[in-house]
Protein backbone atom coordinates (compact mmCIF):
# COMPACT_ATOMS: atom_id res chain seq x y z
CA UNK A 1 0.00 0.00 0.00
CA UNK A 2 2.52 2.58 -1.23
CA UNK A 3 1.89 6.32 -1.13
CA UNK A 4 3.45 9.63 -0.14
CA UNK A 5 3.05 12.52 2.28
CA UNK A 6 0.93 14.84 0.14
CA UNK A 7 0.09 18.51 0.34
CA UNK A 8 -3.09 19.90 1.93
CA UNK A 9 -2.68 23.33 0.35
CA UNK A 10 -5.99 25.20 -0.12
CA UNK A 11 -7.94 22.66 1.93
CA UNK A 12 -7.32 19.38 3.72
CA UNK A 13 -9.67 17.66 1.29
CA UNK A 14 -7.13 18.28 -1.48
CA UNK A 15 -4.80 15.72 0.10
CA UNK A 16 -7.05 12.94 -1.21
CA UNK A 17 -7.01 14.30 -4.74
CA UNK A 18 -3.26 14.85 -4.60
CA UNK A 19 -2.71 11.26 -3.51
CA UNK A 20 -4.87 9.89 -6.31
CA UNK A 21 -3.01 12.05 -8.85
CA UNK A 22 0.31 10.29 -8.13
CA UNK A 23 -1.12 6.77 -8.20
CA UNK A 24 -0.88 6.29 -4.43
CA UNK A 25 -3.03 3.70 -2.67
CA UNK A 26 -2.16 5.10 0.75
CA UNK A 27 -1.07 8.56 1.86
CA UNK A 28 0.03 10.78 4.72
CA UNK A 29 -0.88 14.37 5.53
CA UNK A 30 -0.76 17.04 8.22
CA UNK A 31 -4.19 17.65 9.76
CA UNK A 32 -3.18 21.24 10.56
CA UNK A 33 -0.12 23.47 10.29
CA UNK A 34 2.93 21.62 11.56
CA UNK A 35 4.50 24.95 12.56
CA UNK A 36 1.78 26.48 14.76
CA UNK A 37 0.56 25.56 18.22
CA UNK A 38 -2.99 26.61 17.35
CA UNK A 39 -4.68 26.44 13.93
CA UNK A 40 -8.20 27.28 12.73
CA UNK A 41 -10.76 24.53 13.21
CA UNK A 42 -11.56 22.29 10.28
CA UNK A 43 -14.69 23.48 8.51
CA UNK A 44 -17.73 21.25 8.10
CA UNK A 45 -17.33 21.66 4.34
CA UNK A 46 -13.73 20.38 4.40
CA UNK A 47 -14.62 17.44 6.63
CA UNK A 48 -17.55 16.44 4.43
CA UNK A 49 -15.54 16.88 1.22
CA UNK A 50 -12.57 14.93 2.61
CA UNK A 51 -14.81 11.96 3.38
CA UNK A 52 -16.55 12.21 0.01
CA UNK A 53 -13.24 12.17 -1.85
CA UNK A 54 -11.99 9.25 0.25
CA UNK A 55 -15.03 7.29 -0.86
CA UNK A 56 -14.74 8.42 -4.47
CA UNK A 57 -11.10 7.34 -4.74
CA UNK A 58 -11.69 4.21 -2.64
CA UNK A 59 -9.26 4.97 0.16
CA UNK A 60 -9.98 3.04 3.35
CA UNK A 61 -9.54 5.02 6.57
CA UNK A 62 -6.71 2.72 7.65
CA UNK A 63 -4.68 3.64 4.58
CA UNK A 64 -4.19 7.22 5.79
CA UNK A 65 -1.29 7.93 8.15
CA UNK A 66 -1.74 11.41 9.59
CA UNK A 67 1.44 13.09 10.81
CA UNK A 68 1.73 15.07 14.02
CA UNK A 69 3.02 18.59 14.51
CA UNK A 70 6.78 19.03 14.67
CA UNK A 71 6.34 21.18 17.76
CA UNK A 72 5.04 18.39 19.97
CA UNK A 73 7.37 17.06 22.67
CA UNK A 74 5.52 14.83 25.10
CA UNK A 75 8.81 13.80 26.71
CA UNK A 76 9.71 17.24 28.01
CA UNK A 77 10.09 17.17 31.82
CA UNK A 78 8.97 20.80 32.14
CA UNK A 79 5.23 20.63 33.04
CA UNK A 80 4.21 23.86 31.29
CA UNK A 81 6.01 23.00 28.05
CA UNK A 82 4.63 19.48 28.09
CA UNK A 83 1.10 20.76 28.71
CA UNK A 84 1.36 22.93 25.62
CA UNK A 85 2.53 19.96 23.56
CA UNK A 86 -0.22 17.77 24.99
CA UNK A 87 -2.93 20.25 23.98
CA UNK A 88 -1.54 20.30 20.43
CA UNK A 89 -1.35 16.49 20.43
CA UNK A 90 -4.97 16.00 21.55
CA UNK A 91 -6.15 18.58 19.03
CA UNK A 92 -4.46 16.56 16.27
CA UNK A 93 -6.15 13.37 17.45
CA UNK A 94 -9.57 15.03 17.51
CA UNK A 95 -9.05 16.34 13.98
CA UNK A 96 -8.24 12.79 12.89
CA UNK A 97 -11.46 11.56 14.46
CA UNK A 98 -13.48 14.26 12.71
CA UNK A 99 -12.00 13.16 9.37
CA UNK A 100 -12.36 9.44 10.08
CA UNK A 101 -8.58 8.85 10.07
CA UNK A 102 -7.52 5.87 12.18
CA UNK A 103 -3.73 6.26 12.35
CA UNK A 104 -1.84 9.23 13.81
CA UNK A 105 1.95 9.13 13.55
CA UNK A 106 4.18 11.34 15.69
CA UNK A 107 7.76 11.75 16.89
CA UNK A 108 8.12 10.45 20.47
CA UNK A 109 9.95 13.49 21.82
CA UNK A 110 13.14 14.66 23.49
CA UNK A 111 14.59 14.80 26.99
CA UNK A 112 15.90 18.30 26.11
CA UNK A 113 18.88 17.27 28.22
CA UNK A 114 16.91 17.64 31.46
CA UNK A 115 15.65 14.11 32.07
CA UNK A 116 16.76 10.53 31.64
CA UNK A 117 15.53 8.61 28.60
CA UNK A 118 13.36 6.40 30.82
CA UNK A 119 11.80 9.42 32.50
CA UNK A 120 10.86 10.86 29.11
CA UNK A 121 9.43 7.54 27.95
CA UNK A 122 7.19 7.46 31.01
CA UNK A 123 6.01 11.02 30.36
CA UNK A 124 5.17 10.18 26.73
CA UNK A 125 3.18 7.12 27.78
CA UNK A 126 1.30 9.15 30.38
CA UNK A 127 0.29 11.68 27.72
CA UNK A 128 -0.91 8.90 25.43
CA UNK A 129 -2.99 7.40 28.25
CA UNK A 130 -4.57 10.76 29.02
CA UNK A 131 -5.26 11.41 25.34
CA UNK A 132 -6.96 8.04 25.00
CA UNK A 133 -9.41 9.15 27.67
CA UNK A 134 -10.26 12.28 25.66
CA UNK A 135 -10.67 10.52 22.31
CA UNK A 136 -12.43 7.44 21.01
CA UNK A 137 -10.50 5.35 18.51
CA UNK A 138 -7.48 6.98 16.85
CA UNK A 139 -4.30 4.91 17.18
CA UNK A 140 -1.18 6.76 18.37
CA UNK A 141 1.66 5.56 16.14
CA UNK A 142 5.19 6.10 17.46
CA UNK A 143 7.92 6.78 14.91
CA UNK A 144 11.48 5.49 15.31
CA UNK A 145 14.11 8.23 15.13
CA UNK A 146 17.67 8.59 13.81
CA UNK A 147 19.32 9.18 17.17
CA UNK A 148 20.40 12.82 17.06
CA UNK A 149 20.94 14.87 20.20
CA UNK A 150 18.51 14.29 23.07
CA UNK A 151 15.73 12.83 20.92
CA UNK A 152 14.33 9.50 22.10
CA UNK A 153 13.02 6.70 19.90
CA UNK A 154 16.13 5.65 17.97
CA UNK A 155 16.21 2.27 19.70
CA UNK A 156 13.39 -0.26 19.54
CA UNK A 157 13.71 -0.57 23.32
CA UNK A 158 12.62 3.08 23.62
CA UNK A 159 9.42 2.37 21.71
CA UNK A 160 8.81 -0.76 23.77
CA UNK A 161 9.34 1.27 26.95
CA UNK A 162 6.50 3.58 25.94
CA UNK A 163 4.15 0.84 24.76
CA UNK A 164 4.53 -1.24 27.92
CA UNK A 165 3.26 1.77 29.91
CA UNK A 166 0.25 2.42 27.63
CA UNK A 167 -2.93 1.06 29.17
CA UNK A 168 -4.98 0.54 25.98
CA UNK A 169 -2.48 -1.27 23.78
CA UNK A 170 -5.03 -1.64 20.99
CA UNK A 171 -4.60 2.09 20.40
CA UNK A 172 -0.83 2.31 20.08
CA UNK A 173 1.50 1.29 17.26
CA UNK A 174 4.81 1.91 15.53
CA UNK A 175 5.90 3.39 12.21
CA UNK A 176 9.38 2.32 11.06
CA UNK A 177 11.22 4.93 8.99
CA UNK A 178 13.87 3.24 6.83
CA UNK A 179 16.21 6.24 6.79
CA UNK A 180 15.93 6.70 10.55
CA UNK A 181 16.53 3.01 11.22
CA UNK A 182 19.63 2.94 9.02
CA UNK A 183 21.02 6.13 10.57
CA UNK A 184 20.39 4.76 14.07
CA UNK A 185 22.32 1.54 13.43
CA UNK A 186 19.87 -0.95 11.98
CA UNK A 187 21.52 -2.18 8.79
CA UNK A 188 18.61 -3.08 6.53
CA UNK A 189 20.52 -2.97 3.23
CA UNK A 190 20.55 -6.75 2.82
CA UNK A 191 17.80 -9.30 3.28
CA UNK A 192 19.78 -10.81 6.15
CA UNK A 193 20.07 -7.40 7.80
CA UNK A 194 16.37 -6.75 7.36
CA UNK A 195 15.46 -10.12 8.85
CA UNK A 196 17.76 -9.49 11.79
CA UNK A 197 16.21 -6.06 12.33
CA UNK A 198 12.69 -7.43 12.19
CA UNK A 199 13.62 -10.26 14.56
CA UNK A 200 14.86 -7.68 17.08
CA UNK A 201 11.77 -5.54 16.50
CA UNK A 202 9.45 -8.48 17.09
CA UNK A 203 11.30 -9.61 20.22
CA UNK A 204 11.56 -6.09 21.66
CA UNK A 205 8.33 -4.40 20.52
CA UNK A 206 6.19 -6.98 18.72
CA UNK A 207 5.45 -7.05 15.00
CA UNK A 208 1.73 -6.77 15.78
CA UNK A 209 2.40 -3.11 16.62
CA UNK A 210 3.77 -2.31 13.14
CA UNK A 211 1.09 -0.02 11.71
CA UNK A 212 2.98 1.79 8.96
CA UNK A 213 6.36 2.64 7.43
CA UNK A 214 8.13 5.65 5.96
CA UNK A 215 10.08 4.61 2.87
CA UNK A 216 13.11 6.88 2.49
CA UNK A 217 16.60 6.28 1.16
CA UNK A 218 19.45 7.93 3.07
CA UNK A 219 21.85 10.67 2.02
CA UNK A 220 24.16 9.75 4.87
CA UNK A 221 26.09 6.63 5.81
CA UNK A 222 25.19 3.83 8.18
CA UNK A 223 25.05 4.87 11.87
CA UNK A 224 25.37 8.56 10.95
CA UNK A 225 22.58 9.51 13.39
CA UNK A 226 21.62 12.08 10.77
CA UNK A 227 18.18 12.21 9.19
CA UNK A 228 18.66 13.11 5.53
CA UNK A 229 16.12 11.69 3.10
CA UNK A 230 17.13 10.68 -0.42
CA UNK A 231 15.07 9.44 -3.34
CA UNK A 232 14.53 5.69 -3.48
CA UNK A 233 17.56 3.84 -4.83
CA UNK A 234 19.75 6.95 -5.02
CA UNK A 235 21.16 6.87 -1.48
CA UNK A 236 23.21 4.67 0.82
CA UNK A 237 20.38 2.21 1.38
CA UNK A 238 19.97 1.35 -2.29
CA UNK A 239 17.08 -0.24 -4.13
CA UNK A 240 17.81 -3.74 -2.88
CA UNK A 241 16.80 -2.69 0.63
CA UNK A 242 13.34 -1.76 -0.58
CA UNK A 243 13.03 -4.96 -2.58
CA UNK A 244 13.07 -7.22 0.47
CA UNK A 245 10.95 -4.77 2.47
CA UNK A 246 8.22 -4.55 -0.19
CA UNK A 247 8.16 -8.32 -0.72
CA UNK A 248 7.85 -9.06 3.02
CA UNK A 249 4.41 -10.29 4.12
CA UNK A 250 4.75 -8.24 7.33
CA UNK A 251 4.62 -4.98 5.36
CA UNK A 252 1.49 -5.85 3.42
CA UNK A 253 -1.76 -4.03 4.20
CA UNK A 254 -0.19 -1.09 6.06
CA UNK A 255 0.56 2.43 4.73
CA UNK A 256 4.06 2.64 3.23
CA UNK A 257 4.72 6.34 2.87
CA UNK A 258 7.34 8.18 0.80
CA UNK A 259 8.87 11.28 2.36
CA UNK A 260 11.48 11.69 -0.34
CA UNK A 261 12.30 14.92 -2.22
CA UNK A 262 9.64 15.73 -4.83
CA UNK A 263 11.34 18.76 -6.41
CA UNK A 264 7.85 20.30 -6.41
CA UNK A 265 6.93 17.75 -9.10
CA UNK A 266 5.06 15.12 -7.06
CA UNK A 267 3.29 13.43 -9.97
CA UNK A 268 6.51 12.95 -11.91
CA UNK A 269 8.84 12.02 -9.03
CA UNK A 270 6.65 10.36 -6.40
CA UNK A 271 4.54 8.82 -9.14
CA UNK A 272 7.62 7.14 -10.59
CA UNK A 273 8.89 6.05 -7.16
CA UNK A 274 5.50 4.53 -6.36
CA UNK A 275 5.51 2.69 -9.68
CA UNK A 276 8.99 1.29 -9.02
CA UNK A 277 8.16 0.28 -5.44
CA UNK A 278 5.03 -1.53 -6.57
CA UNK A 279 7.12 -3.43 -9.11
CA UNK A 280 9.61 -4.37 -6.39
CA UNK A 281 6.92 -6.37 -4.62
CA UNK A 282 6.66 -8.61 -7.69
CA UNK A 283 8.92 -9.84 -10.50
CA UNK A 284 11.75 -7.37 -11.22
CA UNK A 285 13.98 -9.66 -13.30
CA UNK A 286 15.70 -8.58 -16.49
CA UNK A 287 16.12 -10.78 -19.57
CA UNK A 288 18.96 -12.72 -17.91
CA UNK A 289 16.76 -13.63 -14.99
CA UNK A 290 18.59 -11.36 -12.54
CA UNK A 291 16.90 -8.57 -10.58
CA UNK A 292 16.80 -5.49 -12.80
CA UNK A 293 17.65 -2.99 -10.08
CA UNK A 294 19.80 -0.89 -12.40
CA UNK A 295 16.90 -0.40 -14.80
CA UNK A 296 14.52 0.62 -12.01
CA UNK A 297 17.02 3.00 -10.45
CA UNK A 298 17.48 4.58 -13.89
CA UNK A 299 13.74 5.29 -14.03
CA UNK A 300 13.83 7.17 -10.75
CA UNK A 301 17.05 8.96 -11.59
CA UNK A 302 15.54 10.07 -14.90
CA UNK A 303 12.40 11.37 -13.20
CA UNK A 304 14.47 13.29 -10.65
CA UNK A 305 16.68 14.83 -13.31
CA UNK A 306 13.69 15.91 -15.38
CA UNK A 307 11.98 17.39 -12.32
CA UNK A 308 15.11 19.34 -11.43
CA UNK A 309 15.17 20.78 -14.91
CA UNK A 310 11.50 21.75 -14.79
CA UNK A 311 12.05 23.38 -11.45
CA UNK A 312 14.75 25.66 -12.76
CA UNK A 313 17.72 23.50 -11.83
CA UNK A 314 16.82 23.45 -8.14
CA UNK A 315 19.75 22.08 -6.18
CA UNK A 316 18.25 21.88 -2.72
CA UNK A 317 15.79 19.03 -2.94
CA UNK A 318 12.35 19.78 -1.57
CA UNK A 319 9.43 17.66 -0.50
CA UNK A 320 5.91 18.55 0.59
CA UNK A 321 7.16 18.31 4.17
CA UNK A 322 9.25 21.29 5.32
CA UNK A 323 12.33 20.54 7.39
CA UNK A 324 11.76 20.28 11.10
CA UNK A 325 14.62 22.59 11.97
CA UNK A 326 14.80 26.33 11.60
CA UNK A 327 17.32 27.77 14.02
CA UNK A 328 15.77 31.21 13.87
CA UNK A 329 12.34 29.85 14.74
CA UNK A 330 13.08 27.37 17.55
CA UNK A 331 10.39 27.06 20.17
CA UNK A 332 11.44 26.44 23.75
CA UNK A 333 10.19 23.14 25.08
CA UNK A 334 9.41 21.61 21.69
CA UNK A 335 11.36 18.83 20.05
CA UNK A 336 12.96 21.55 17.92
CA UNK A 337 14.57 23.03 21.01
CA UNK A 338 17.43 20.58 20.64
CA UNK A 339 20.76 21.49 19.09
CA UNK A 340 20.99 18.33 17.04
CA UNK A 341 17.37 17.52 16.32
CA UNK A 342 16.08 15.46 13.37
CA UNK A 343 16.04 17.56 10.23
CA UNK A 344 13.78 15.84 7.72
CA UNK A 345 11.23 13.66 9.46
UniProtKB/TrEMBL annotation:
GO terms for molecular function: DNA binding; DNA-(apurinic or apyrimidinic site) endonuclease activity; phosphoric diester hydrolase activity; zinc ion binding. Keywords: DNA damage, DNA repair, Hydrolase, Metal-binding, Zinc. Residues 310-345 are annotated as: Disordered. Residues 336-345 have a biased composition (Acidic residues). Belongs to the AP endonuclease 2 family. Its cofactor is Zn(2+). Residues 17-279 form the Xylose isomerase-like TIM barrel domain. Pfam families: AP_endonuc_2. GO terms for cellular component: mitochondrion; nucleus. The lineage of its organism: Eukaryota, Fungi, Dikarya, Basidiomycota, Agaricomycotina. The keyword DNA damage applies. It comes from the Eukaryota. PANTHER family: APURINIC-APYRIMIDINIC ENDONUCLEASE, ENDONUCLEASE IV ENDODEOXYRIBONUCLEASE IV. GO terms for biological process: base-excision repair. SUPFAM superfamilies: Xylose isomerase-like (SSF51658). This is Apurinic-apyrimidinic endonuclease 1.
